[in-house]
Design a protein that fits this description.
two-stranded parallel ribbon, 10 strands, six-stranded parallel sheet, 35% helix, globular, binds NADP nicotinamide-adenine-dinucleotide phosphate, 7 helices
């Protein structure tokens, strides 16, 4: 399996590189020129293609011959960085490749997610502040996901809860809708978010799904497991 990791130098990206190497995959990483040094720990084990992730030529070169593409969608800047990145991946990945994208719970696929008042207020506040300083454009991440959902590629959009650092606790559990009791704890280890992304490459049940994930050892996940009994992980 040859995989491309778009946004490889970030925190999520580096964990994904490690998980992919652990599985014996051939890895191509894309990151900004200035961030290449952040991947020094993987020198000689991965191919790094420097460049902006919304540069179509960079993406075209990076995804060539890849069976899977893991894309970190980040709402940086106000120049369609996120939607440009998603579009380049959708257009240039080979037919039939597994495409996995990351985002947060704030993205909704079918409008059936139920958000707490605190969550909605936080997203609104971040969005407002971000537009003010022109550093982040959450609407563009929404647009990026809209394009993915509308595409006929073999996509999965993994929606992360709040994140924390720490040792792996295992594969997160997931649900189709924010608001489902299993997700109530709203916390996932970043290393396990990355694990879910990489595992999704070989899980065809996740094709055309937008799983909202939560750590498998969180109280809400454990309560759900106790309620449904052994052998059911969600
Ligand atoms: N943070 C959270 O609490 C949270 C919660 C839920 C979901 N998520 C999702 O998780 C994923 C990873 O998020 P993260 O917060 O953990 O970040 P991260 O993994 O550290 O990734 C940040 C990415 O953004 C790039 N970046 C930073 N500044 C940039 C700029 N000015 N222009 C272009 N690219 C820039 C970084 O590249 P360089 O290495 O080049 O700087 C890196 O690839 C995202 O899809 C996010 O939506 C995050």
């Amino acid at each position: 399996m040859k995989v491309c990791i778009v946004g490889a130098s970030g925190k999520l990206g580096k964990y994904m590189v490690q998980h992919a190497l652990d599985r014996g995959y051939e890895v191509v990483g894309v990151c900004r020129e200035r961030s290449v040094g952040k991947l020094d720990a993987f020198k000689g084990r991965i191919t790094v293609i420097p460049g902006a992730t919304n540069d179509r030529e960079v993406i075209k070169k990076a995804v060539a011959g890849c069976d899977g593409v893991l894309t970190v969608l980040v709402p940086w800047g106000v120049h369609q960085y996120s939607s440009g990145t998603a579009q380049a991946v959708l257009d240039h990945a080979r037919l039939g490749a597994r495409l996995i994208f990351s985002c947060g719970w704030h993205i909704t696929r079918d409008g059936q997610d139920v958000y707490s008042r605190t969550f909605k207020a936080a997203v609104k506040a971040v969005g407002w502040l971000a537009r003010l300083v022109r550093a982040v454009d959450i609407d563009d991440q929404v647009e990026a996901c809209r394009r993915v959902f509308a595409s006929d590629t073999r996509w999965t959009v993994v929606r992360g809860s709040d994140l924390e650092e720490g040792e792996s606790q295992g594969l997160p559990v997931w649900s189709r809708h924010v608001g489902d009791p299993i997700l109530k704890s709203n916390m996932t280890r970043r290393v396990d978010f990355a694990l879910f992304m990489v595992e999704a490459l070989e899980n065809d049940e996740l094709i055309h799904e937008a799983p909202a994930i939560v750590g498998c050892r969180t109280p809400s996940a454990l309560a759900h497991a106790a309620a449904v009994g052994p052998g059911h992980d969600r």
